[in-house]
Amino acid sequence: MSTPSRRSDAPPRPEDARAGRTVAGRRRGAGKRFLVVGDVLDGVLVQTSATTIGVHDPAAVIRHRPAGAAGNTATWLGWLGADVDLVGRVGVDDVYRHERALGDAGVRAHLRYDARTTTGAVVSVRNEDGRTAMSDPAASGALTAEDVPSDLVERADIVHLTGAAMFGGGGAERIAAMVARVRSGSAPVRVSLDPSSSAVVQTIGADAFLAALAGVDVLFPDEAEALALTGADTVADAVGVLTERVPLVVVTRAHEGVLIGRGGRSPQRLPVTPTTVVDTLGAGDAFAAGFLRAWATDPVRVGAAAREGTRVAARALGFVGGRPPV
């Protein structure tokens, strides 16, 4: 039997420096409410010197962290001082632990659970050559549009959908149902979506995935996801295809910065914010949080929102794991 958990109200946050950035005299995101829907996972993060199968690294650094794209984006929004709710699904034994981790970052958690399903997990292994990630969707893969309370949608200004486990678990039909759920209310809510994984795009099928994006206002693919969605040879060509489906497309390109696409305009390129990279996990989720918080206040100033996204991503790159320290 699937049962929603008791609502967890986030503790009050002091009005400190993290919430004090301004745009034209207004605090970014002030008066706006965000709803994030998607993956809440357990993460096992491994930093190793091993480069081949069969090697035992007795000095590997292994950390357990709460993870998942939705949890990451929501906690960065909370860290920035935004008013944010999150809907996700975890195993019954892990509800309180994840509610507390999200609440400590200023997020109101609305976690569904099923006594027969465990919390999803991701294992990230990083060495000097790069990163390999493996995931088990479990509970996050069972999250559906029916799990999203209509009252949360009605109160939100922006609803952000994200997470490879959630999207991969239900295919294009689940994506379309999630978007339709958000659009079904009477409130003028904006919808953003992060495809989350090129592997998920390939599994669902690019054409089906693109068709499910009807009603999305802003899309946050990385370069690999943009190419997988379109089959284009270059990211600039991919942006041109994607803007035929979604009004605003923001492609993150790691150290090459950001490419912004809007229908009928040439793509706009922005550089990254320089930083020392400790861990790349969750940097794209942090970028989305920074962008959305600024864009909520000034939807016309897309370049300024992207620059804020790169600043928040730069902060995320300095920590192990995909969430801010709280």
Can you walk me through this structure?
The protein has 326 residues and is α/β, with parallel strands linked by helices. It is built from ten helices and 16 strands. The chain has helices at 69-79, 95-104, 150-155, 164-183, 198-204, 206-211, 223-230, 235-242, 283-297, 302-316, and strands at residues 2-4, 22-23, 26-27, 33-38, 41-47, 61-67, 83-91, 107-114, 121-127, 130-136, 158-162, 190-194, 218-219, 248-252, 258-262, 268-270. The strands form three sheets. A ten-stranded mixed beta sheet has the order 1-8-7-4-11-12-13-14-15-16, sandwiched between helices. A four-stranded mixed beta sheet has the order 6-5-9-10. The longest helix has 20 residues, at 164-183. The chain is globular, with a radius of gyration of 18 Å.
How do the strands and helices of this protein lay out in sequence?
Elements: E1 2-4, E2 22-23, E3 26-27, E4 33-38, E5 41-47, E6 61-67, H1 69-79, E7 83-91, H2 95-104, E8 107-114, E9 121-127, E10 130-136, H3 150-155, E11 158-162, H4 164-183, E12 190-194, H5 198-204, H6 206-211, E13 218-219, H7 223-230, H8 235-242, E14 248-252, E15 258-262, E16 268-270, H9 283-297, H10 302-316
Parallel strand pairs: 4-7, 4-11, 5-9, 7-8, 11-12, 12-13, 13-14
Antiparallel strand pairs: 1-8, 2-3, 5-6, 9-10, 14-15, 15-16
Task: Quickly describe the structure.
The protein is of the alpha/beta class. The chain has helices spanning 69-79, 95-104, 150-155, 164-183, 198-204, 206-211, 223-230, 235-242, 283-297, 302-316; strands at residues 2-4, 22-23, 26-27, 33-38, 41-47, 61-67, 83-91, 107-114, 121-127, 130-136, 158-162, 190-194, 218-219, 248-252, 258-262, 268-270. It is globular.
